UniProtKB/TrEMBL annotation:
Keywords: Membrane, Transmembrane, Transmembrane helix. GO terms for cellular component: membrane. It is found in: Membrane. It is a multi-pass membrane protein. GO terms for molecular function: L-amino acid transmembrane transporter activity. This is Amino acid permease. Its main location: membrane. It holds the Pfam family AA_permease_2. The chain crosses the membrane at residues 14-36, 48-81, 93-118, 130-149, 161-177, 197-215, 236-255, 275-298, 333-354, 360-380, 392-414, 420-440. It comes from Companilactobacillus farciminis.
Amino acid sequence: MNDETDKFSLKRDLGFFPALSTVMGLVIGGGVFFKISSVTTATGSSSLTILVWLLAGFITINAGLTVAELASALPVAGGIYKYIEYIYGKVPAFLLAWAQSVIYYPAGISALSIIFATQVMNLLNLPSTWQIPIAITLAIFLYLVNLLGAKVGGSIQSISLIAKLVPIVLIIAVGLFTPSTHAVSLFPINSGTHANFWSSLGGGLLATMFAFDGWMNVGNLAGEMKRPEKDLSRSIIVGLFLITLIYVLISFVFIKFLPFHLIPGNQNAASEAAIRIFGDIGGKIVTIGILISVFGSVNGYTMTGPRVSYVLGTDDEIVFSKFFGKLTKKTRVPANAGLIQTIIAIVMIFMGSFDYLTDMLVFVMWIFSMMMFIGVFILRRNEPELERPYKINFYPIPPLITLAGGGYIIISTLLRQPGLAFMGIGITLLGLPVYYIHYFNKKRSL
């Protein structure tokens, strides 16, 4: 390995079990508790609901394995942004960073802030007029907290990791062995009467994908693993399999304890199921655990999002580069980038619901994910001599599976929710004039 790649080298001290826990920690977030309402809305049946969770897990496992080859092969640091830049050039990479800065991270913050507010209102019996003020307060509060430094934000993440596992384990462990008042039908697999099977399947898959958000970062573990050629695929397969199992089981418990017609569109489904399982007091305690988990998920987006536009600023790749590239003096936090992200998130709180925002961010990011999957084929053809510490087993089957799954999600979204899809595409393409205005201004100043 030459000097150019050495400077990007990471310390390889990660074994299988630390990698496994990292995979699960990256992926499990607030979606596990709240996407059941939108999944059931799309599918219309308990049988198809369980099937889409299984399919989403299968697609995600293959996606993780595909991206893992890119992460282990490319001599660059910076994750998906650098992969896109290495394969396709600066303009597509900028559009990704732009989409992350103006859609992905702000939408994640706003969507989960709306969910947090909804759960607080449910817990304290507050009127619906409190939703927007609570959501905005949370977004601003976590922005201010993260100004105190990455250590403070990281501590919140550690606490919330434990908090989100406790209600998950309790709901599954107790819910599976507690008798229900109604039967759950898992066969035959069919959709509800509201839409045809394939449309329902596509809508359900799109809805589940927010719960798997974080899989794109899984491949980044390659550079820190002792034996990526052996342990990377194992940690991804086992980790995402366990996550899929958790999602299937917790969805089954929700369906088991709530009559199916009460779940679609019900953002309080997790809390209501917990109350039915544990009683009023136990249910409220579990709901508090869920709230802490969502709080941590919002903090994760708040903490990591500004780093994207900050890097664009420091690399002089965006207008007002000095503004975005500025750090606070004491805590070394990209405060300006975080401020813009928070403002966009607040605007989104006013304009969209949880499901609308999460579906849009998933749709947009899957477009770039498809570019990464295709990138594996491009690099195999153009750079066969490139060192690959991890190579996909049974190539080209895993990337083909992800391309088929991702293509189905994108096409289904275009057909089912064209307004959402074109808004996401339109906002992303707005990055083109932003990029070229700055590009020509830089050339003029030289």
